[in-house]
User: Fold this.
Amino acid sequence: MSETITSNPAIDFTKLEGLVPGIVQDAASGQVLMVGFLNEESYRKSLESGFVTFWSRTRRKLWMKGETSGNRLRITDAATDCDNDTLLFRVVVEGDGLVCHEGTISCFTKPVAMASLDATAKESEATA
Assistant:
């Protein structure tokens, strides 16, 4: 993601009532840390400040991740997907590194059981 950028792509804020998902990934480890939503203003603030700023859907206001906890997300680089309707921020976490409000590094800590994965694993074991 480190190519020279001459202009930013136009982000499509029309699909989700003015919002786009913002995926946050640790720049060093590649671990996905969290997902939030951005509107045009929070996107602009993120680019200007160098820190990920979201739009809080519940509080209906801008929200810079880490503004109270100190675990700010300093952007090292950013990209959009092929449809320009989802953003990926690669970041360095400032503070103690606990991004999730539940006190974990990543918000993605709750495994989901997939019946089809279990069946595939059993089939592989049976044929091995």
